[in-house]
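Recap from last week: sequence in, structure out.
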Amino acid sequence: MIHHTPRVPVADLHEHVGRTVSVSGWVNTLRLQRAMQFVLVRDHTGTAQVTHRRGGPGDGTERAIEDLTVESAVRVTGRVVANPVVKLGGVEIVPDAVELLNRAEPLLPIDERSGPEHRLDWRFLDVRRRPAAQLLFAVQTTVEQAMREFAHGEGCTEMHTPKLMGTASESGAEVFKLGYFDRSAYLAQSPQFYKQMAIAAGIDRVFEVGPVFRAEPSFTSRHATEFTGVDVELAWIDGVEDVMAFEERMLAHAVAAVARVHGPAIREHFGREVVVPELPFPRITMAEAQRLLRAGGWDPEGLKEDLDPEGERALAAHVRERSGHEFVFVTHYPAGIRPFYHMRSPEQPEVTLSFDLLWKGLEITTGAQREHRYDVLLKQAAEKGVGTEPIQDYLNCFRYGCPPHGGLGLGLGRVLMVMLGLESIRDAVFLFRGPNRLTP
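Predicted structure tokens:
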């Protein structure tokens, strides 16, 4: 049995000066000179220089280094030596042994000039070669962990709801249909009905992180056919304001965690400052937003009740100018463009007690108070032309004492996209799924 010297992460090498250690990683670059061989080895924590003088006794190390190719997986064992000339942390490794664990083919399929689609074809290599791409997933981990921590602290129970449904959910919008034994099933495009069912089941506050499927043939930089949703549902609320207050506190908590853990790394790799937002976030009604934007010359065809991406950006710019805030809740969306289960305002029955949250002009969340009264739900479903038979299991939740409740759905990829200033949602996930992409 081979006993290996303990593996040390590259970032910790400076703590081991004078000792013999082992580093495992990939060959980043090779500089093979007449007298010296230099290998830069990269692991998930950084890059180290391996420096070898040719012509040592029985020099198997020289031959081993000559056989290397860029991106080969290697294990290097050697002494850590302080050398102020070395830019990479002021240390280098003088090797006793270089072990080739898996040789990379000499011609890599991607390089710095590769276009975004080609890079997605070779995503594992793309991520491996770019520290910024790896940082993304570290940030994602921190965001999710902080949101969970906040939700748990607020008394939420984490749930896992089905992604296979017997009928098309919600408004029967774009869903994926698939064969299910001798009948059809659909992929859930939201856990909406199920998290409301959990509220009806007496679970006071519900939290879920899970996949969401949308069969929209959208080719924008912010749409995906499969993405990760963060969903919350809160029972016994006094109004939709309770939901917005929960969300702004959750996001401020998550952004603060990212700033604390990754602030300097994000500055280095993405050139962004992570700014912890002040509470409360600004709020503006859809009617006010429309008036304001139209006064500024925004007038897209056929958008009397909603905002297009340009309108969202213009509104965000206005709010930032006026309040210095990057977030804004747009509230009281017209009933005509919201699902049947959104509660209507008692004072203005033509608007819903709902909201979208924009961050730097990108919509990251939709939320609302839900209609919990059975008779009103039936009436609103009929108005929208929603057939009640396929959703009878859902409607049954409201026949036996369902409390007032509301919640929100947030796109994790969009949060990362805005936070890190990414150009496309494709860069905010590990393996993107869109209308034209089902691989790798």
